[in-house]
Amino acid sequence: MRVHEAGALHADIGQHGPAWLREPDDVNLLLPQLWPGSVVRGADGVLRVGGIPVTDLAAEYGTPAYVVDEADLRSRAAAYRTAFSAAFPAGADVYYAGKSFLCKAVVRWIAEEGLNLDVCSGGELAVALAAGFDPARIGFHGNNKSLAELDRAVSAGVGRIIVDSFDEIERLATLAADRGVRAPVMVRVTVGVEAHTHEYIATAHEDQKFGFSLNRGRAGREGGDAAEAVRRVLAAPSLRLLGLHSHIGSQIYDAQGFEVSARRVLGLQAQIRDEHGIEPPELDLGGGFGIAYTTQDDPFEPVEIATALAGIVQHECTAYGLSVPRISVEPGRSISGPAAFTLYEVGTVKDVELDGGAVRRYVSVDGGMSDNIRTALYDASYSCTLASRLSDAPPALSRVVGKHCESGDIVVRDEFLPSDLAPGDLIAVPGTGAYTRSMANNYNHVPRPGVVAVADGTARVIVRAETEDDLLRLDVG
Ligand SMILES: Cc1ncc(COP(=O)(O)O)c(C=O)c1O
Ligand SMILES: N[C@@H](CCCC[NH3+])C(=O)O
């Protein structure tokens, strides 16, 4: 690590960052891969998104605020649709994973860009339906969908229900029979892949709650619980088997896991053909494509993912003598994540002496783990920048923390920020479009920030910020 001439304090602070974090030559520079497409720093040093200075956004809408670049989100969605249509000429569907960020405006953008939608709760389904999304283009996930949620999905005509347990198969079969319909079903398969990501966001290793295991099963028959689930779906006249579903986890950067999972799930497809004489027409390979949160991350482009998956699927289908099923994928983070940043105001700057005399700089902002729980929950890495002015002060390694009563309330664990950072400055954290607002909470009765969408030089609120009245409205005493 290069030590700046700023002196002992800076050198000491510099010893406490991760090995990969390099001091920037110019602390005002933006790394394009981390920011929504329309974000630039103006000559006055103020960040602009869609042509609007963030100082204007802060003055108009307050901080913290999630700021989403509509054109950026739309273009990522469109890139997935185009890439998968090109890679799978017989047809492929992209289901935007609404859990990453959902509101009525986003539902409409996704519909207009020609994508389908993945929801995983009655609440997400309600938002999709309220925004007028075609139910036939919705996939409904969840390891514990209630009877009421299943009923709503069946009544609305949801296009696919991804079943996740034997209890659910029985429940759904009864419900669909009572309604006199055949419910379209996919079977969620646990393929036993150890995805290289945080344990809490990996979903295809054996010891977790999702899906039916390919390898293991109480029934003790070939194909594990997954093959047994297929038998039970096929045996239920009120269920229609669309296909198999596999999702190996989230924030994944290499194709290897997808290759193993496609091979294993197509192995089950071949077993279904041999055992039942049918080839389910569809196959969903899930989402999980990683994005860049820091300079260390090197994500796939949609076209690379689509091409890699097409090669893998074609190869495995040829090997098993199968026809290529209609493929679907479920990207969430890689569509919504890079399209937004969070704008905070600095409240305090504090240098804390560590054991051995080194110093850590704590920059406190007006949000925290209530608007972004990912750093506390997954030890996630983020970067950030001073957004409201230029600075020629030397960079100082800093830790950006929130205002909550919790020492793990960290937003950005380590980042070089100008050493003259002061209360009132604005900080922007990129890559916060996914799993931030959607995982926001009211810890310490801190109201959740709103979401401001910027497009064509105009800004509008698409999710209103909570107020204290909102918090008190639920407290009926
Ligand atoms: C079944 C399923 N599909 C899609 C996704 C979306 O993942 P990501 O946002 O990482 O693309 C998830 C979340 O991990 C998921 O559980
Ligand atoms: N919420 C996770 C990803 C989703 C995991 C659920 N399948 C994250 O913030 O990274």
UniProtKB/TrEMBL annotation:
Q: Does the keyword Amino-acid biosynthesis apply?
A: yes
Task: Give the positions the UniProt entry annotates as the active site.
Answer: C405
- What does the record give as the function of this protein? Specifically catalyzes the decarboxylation of meso-diaminopimelate (meso-DAP) to L-lysine.
Binding residues annotated for pyridoxal 5'-phosphate, in chain numbering? G288, E330, P331, G332, R333, Y435
Q: Which GO terms describe its molecular function?
A: diaminopimelate decarboxylase activity; pyridoxal phosphate binding
Could you tell me which residues carry N6-(pyridoxal phosphate)lysine? K99
Q: Which organism is it from?
A: Actinocatenispora rupis
The gene name on file is: lysA
| GO BP term, pick one | lysine biosynthetic process via diaminopimelate
The record's catalysed reaction(s) read: meso-2,6-diaminopimelate + H(+) = L-lysine + CO2
What SUPFAM superfamilies does the annotation carry?
Answer: Alanine racemase C-terminal domain-like, PLP-binding barrel
Spell out the InterPro entries in the cross-references: Ala_racemase/Decarboxylase_C, DAP_deCOOHase_LysA, De-COase2_CS, De-COase2_N, De-COase2_pyr-phos_BS, Orn/DAP/Arg_de-COase, PLP-binding_barrel
Binding-site residues for substrate, renumbered to this chain:
R333, R374, Y378, E406, Y435
- The protein here is known as Diaminopimelate decarboxylase
Q: Which cofactor does it need?
A: pyridoxal 5'-phosphate
